[in-house]
Amino acid sequence: MVDKKSKNWTGCPVRFGMSQFGDKWSFLIIRDIMFKGRRYYNEFLEAGEGISTNILANRLADLEFNGLVSKHQDTIKRSKYIYRLTEKGIALMPMMLSMIDWSERYDEQTEVPAEFIKKLRESPEALQKELLEQLTKDSTNG
Amino acid sequence: MVDKKSKNWTGCPVRFGMSQFGDKWSFLIIRDIMFKGRRYYNEFLEAGEGISTNILANRLADLEFNGLVSKHQDTIKRSKYIYRLTEKGIALMPMMLSMIDWSERYDEQTEVPAEFIKKLRESPEALQKELLEQLTKDSTNG
DNA sequence: AAAATTGACTTGCTTTTTACAAGTTAAATA
DNA sequence: TATTTAACTTGTAAAAAGCAAGTCAATTTT
User: Which of A62, B45, B88, B108 has its Cβ near the most Cβ atoms within 10 Å?
Assistant: First the structure.
């Protein structure tokens, strides 16, 4: 959990960030939506890192509560819920890309595609625009 | 703790990042060194968020183990230890600055100085260079 | 030189979170 | 009508965090 109760987590920007999305699983969920096109509870579960169902539900609720993620019923299949990044969530993209850039440098076993990293370093604006379109286009649902 | 045992945390850059610095306290320690000029155990303790002594020791050890932070005896007062960011740690600056930029936007009670945020948005290179000099100059010790 | 203090932890114990397995519920198929 | 799918919830054990107190070496003070 990312702290809710406790004192005052506003003010300092790093502390504020931590209170909004500052735990491992939140980052991974944001990654899944932002870069992997995942949008359903099920898809997050199958992400590979093995998050537990209760933790996932909890983190999605936190992220929604903090306004980073929105939750809507799927219009076609009403038993499903679509999770999306809000504008506030999408605005984390530069931070996420910086992290990716860093990890590519320091993880010897990085799996970041060479093409992606090249684009990130040579024309970050273009890459960001591309990713943003992916996030926004959104296949009619919700 | 930021996971040590468990499977394979390399590969995915977000997952890798989480394994290297992916918890609240680690971020706050990095902030303290990077932006507040703190370098001693004591100074981290007094940071205001109230980290426990054992957790602080543990996180510093993790960060050192991961090569983000270095630890050296203070040359003047040998009972003290100086903690610094390594190059690898310093390389997180763009990510930290992106987070600060984001928080300034979304935290209504942000305390980021207007001057700082202006510089960050108008001439990020210059700001980064300034901050870097602060980190590198380093008052003769260690 | 002895006593007190500083600085950086470590230890023990309680509380809070996380992880894992199993169960529930509504909606959509078969 | 009976299954299956999708998204959770609940219960419980294990791990991590938080808190207070204690250790220990290097200063400083008396």
Answer: A62
